[in-house]
Amino acid sequence: MYVDESGDAGREPGSTPVFVLAGLITPANRWNETEKRLIDMRRDLGAQYGLKPNDELRGSAILRSGPGNHARRVALIQSTLERLGKMPHMKILLTVVRKAKLPPETDVFRAGWSAHLGRFDGYLNTLNRGRAPETGIPGFIVSDDTHGGQLDKLVRGLRRERPVRITKGWWLWRKSEIENRPLKYVIEQPQRRDSKSSLLIQAADLCAYAVYQREKPHGAVLEQKANESFLKALGPNIDRIGGTDSDGVFVIENS
User: For the whole model, what pTM was predicted?
Assistant: First the structure.
């Protein structure tokens, strides 16, 4: 799973109101095919919209200084998301932490990444149903080179302890309790890549940007009503494991 973020994990004044994580999942045996599809997509977008060879497919960079006016830049992002939403052998995980109602002591980075990694582990668990342990499919993370040491430490800890609130029972007998569900299928420490050299990281950035624009849209995005259409474009490939809202985003906002 290739992961990138949008927004920041800070709680101080001036921090972003949300922290977003987006992950693109592709099977290892389809990696070459996926990479080729992304290269072809990048080439097509360059020809259609005038992207330069060294321009990254990152949402904020495109909107700030991409080719043409704001409407054309929004159309470029929309077109890219539509291609990603229909790309074979790809699944997209989207997670957002809304900070406004969180207790002051909540670690936004930990809350977001713990949930996102847990959802990826759940996705792998689904793939492994019916398989013998020795034939199970593991997964690993490739992320933008931003929170290296902090993320490594978190992943090591989550392999031992990952508290998850579980609701059990029916109606009047429903109750909530905390269970330890450590990561089971996520192997290795996250591998870090500079986004400039990875189209998959850039694509993950665009997916995270789509969520951020729903939560806090840029004026140009609002003008084109793309705050509603960005996530719809990704819809076919969004995986809803773990419980999501109607757009396929897992929301953390009051715990």
Answer: 0.94
